Amino acid sequence: MSKKLIAFLLALPASAEIIYATSYNDHTVTSLKLDGSSLTRVSQNLDCGSEPTWLTLDKSKSVLYCLNEGWGGSSSITSYRTSVSGTLETLDVLSVLKSPVASTLFANNSKLAVAHYDTSAFTTFSVADPTNLSLLGQQTYQLTAPGTVPERQDAPHLHDAILDPSKKFILVPDLGADLIRVFQVDDGAAAATAVTSIPTIAGSGPRHVAFAKAGRKTFLYSFNELSNTISGYSVTYKRDAAPEFTRLFDVPSGGPGTTVPAGTKAAEIEVSPDQRFVIVSSRGENSLDIPAFDGEGTIKSDPLQVFAVNQQTGALTHVQTAPAGGRNPRGFSLNKAGTKLVSALQDDNRVVVYERDVRTGKLGKVLAHATVGSGPNNGPNYALFDE
């Protein structure tokens, strides 16, 4: 291939990307097209119920799953057929236990595991046929007494579900019980089996967790909502047994020696695709001033904190405090290349896409932004790249 042809191909504009965003109180799943510095709305879908929240994408089958927490009515899971244009075709809607807040695919993407916050439950579903979703199993939990923070730990509150790197276990942080519940999954089994629990610091309230692989080593990071801390664990896999988790450290969400204002709540945690960085978001901190998106003055923004992962020990080194693009970044995600981050700002009705330096892990300039939702606090709570 000639140098002139290579230069020509590199100069071609990148193809547009699709981003999906849920609006917790606006009852919509919005499809956005990212084309260079432009982020425009393609379509909106109302079939994910009254409070659309978490999104799980099966790219191999062009299927998107949306959880409806259903605080204002019944809760549900909606399956969609995705398209190159970004429009969504509704395939099925299944009523489920109240307050599903997070989900993950497992068993070669034939099953979906769901954490339920208010109903203290863990459920699994068959999604082998996305036009015919069905319940496989349900496990409900109770507390014998309220936890260290009784107003938030009056019952088990399961808040996330992620598949481990071996694809044999699902981890479910329980904010109310100060536990991370571990379930073993088998491709042939009808449901998941509870095998162990990881105790967390009393009153920490684990919200979301993420794994990082460093060579042959595996680390787990828990982002704790009530204590606004990150807990790190080493993970040791055993033949025919549940993994062992050894707690290594606990650090404030802003790094060692930092504090956050009263009312701050930990939100999302992500590990970069190259497994070298951890990024977390906080809500209610409002600690940064950034240029307003309409060009007039400044606005408040919650932070995104970036940490480098020590590939030998799993320790975290604070790299950057960056703006999330506004208030209440309830959810964010990275593209697969790790070159972009999309942030959902629930209190500001805004989705913001930032550039990201893969080498340093730092976030850079705003690439694009769009208004999603209408009215006070009706903005997006989660945003996900379609890839």
UniProtKB/TrEMBL annotation:
InterPro entries reported in the protein's UniProt record: Cycloisomerase_2, Haem_d1_sf, Lactonase_7-beta_prop, WD40/YVTN_repeat-like_dom_sf
Top-level taxon of the source organism: Eukaryota
- Keywords tagged on the record: Signal
**Pfam families cross-referenced by the UniProt entry:** Lactonase
Q: Does the keyword Signal apply?
A: yes
The signal peptide annotation in the UniProt record is 1-16
Q: Which residues form a coiled coil?
A: none
Which family is this protein grouped under?
Belongs to the cycloisomerase 2 family.
UniProt-recorded name of the protein:
3-carboxymuconate cyclase
Q: Which organism is it from?
A: Podospora comata
